[in-house]
Amino acid sequence: MLLFAPMQAQEKKQNPETETEKKPFFQGVGIAVDLGGIGNKLFGGTYMSSEVAAEVNLLNRYMPVVEIGYGVSDMTDEDKNISYKASAPYFRVGMNYNFMHNKDTYSIIYGGLRYGFSSFSFDISAPDLQDPVWGGSTPFHYEGLSCTAQWVEIVAGIRAQIWKNLHMGWAVRYKRLLSYTEHPNADPHYIPGYGVYDNVKFGFTYNIIYYLPLSKKK
Question: pLDDT per residue over 81-99, tens digit each?
């Protein structure tokens, strides 16, 4: 009996090293609502958006995501007497990467990429254009100018558990416009899902996320 004791002790030491519990591939689904787009108008912005997102958690590391929203801008510049209107849906697709995938925690720090697209029309009006040579004026009033826009985003954010399956988080987004429909008379002031027109810009989102209880952590 004593001869077998060292062998049994050695087996017990090896077992914990060889027995590694594999994470389930599918970890669940999260549904998020962005409150930042609604708050933008309340705090004096020139546009407002409402947005929902669905995210699939794979191995607690890779998180493919789809974001769908609706953006509205109804802006009037009293000083320049310029008005602009646009409203349309938009969508983004991409993936997040959880940098805390090895931690046994519901809080995450993540980075990600997005591709965004929107097809919309806009109205713009301004004071008539005066001809300094021949005199007279040309009305500057356009309605229903069609436009499509594409862009990419680099995302960095953090999330924390509030209560059970309910989480909150925020993210910073670096956006770069890839293409948009150009018009000879006017550029869009606002692109739904992208923001105020510019080739490069930063955005901010504040989300409430609910994780559907489809899987349980062990």
Answer: 889 999 999 999 999 999 9
Q: Is 82 or 119 the better-scoring residue by pLDDT?
A: 119
- Per the listing, tokens 């049994």 go with 8
Mean pLDDT across the chain, nearest whole number? Answer: 86
Residues 6 or more apart from 116 whose CB is under 8 A from it? 90, 91, 92, 149, 150, 151, 152, 153, 175, 193, 194
Which residues lie across from 180 on neighbouring strands? 149
- Whose tokens are 């519901």? That residue is 106
CATH class entry, domain 25-212: mainly beta
Q: Where are the domains of the chain?
A: 25-212
CA dihedral 53, 59, 60, 62 (to 10 degrees): -50
The residue count of the chain comes to 218
Contact 119, 72 (CB under 8 A): no
Residues ≥6 apart with Cβ < 8 Å to 51: 33, 34, 37, 67, 68, 69, 70, 193, 205
- In angstroms, how far is the first alpha carbon of the chain from the final one? 38
pLDDT digit string, tens, across residues 32-56: 999 988 888 777 778 899 999 999 9
**Across-strand partners of 190?**
196
pTM comes to 0.82
Residue 6 CB partners (closer than 8 Å, separation 6+) = none
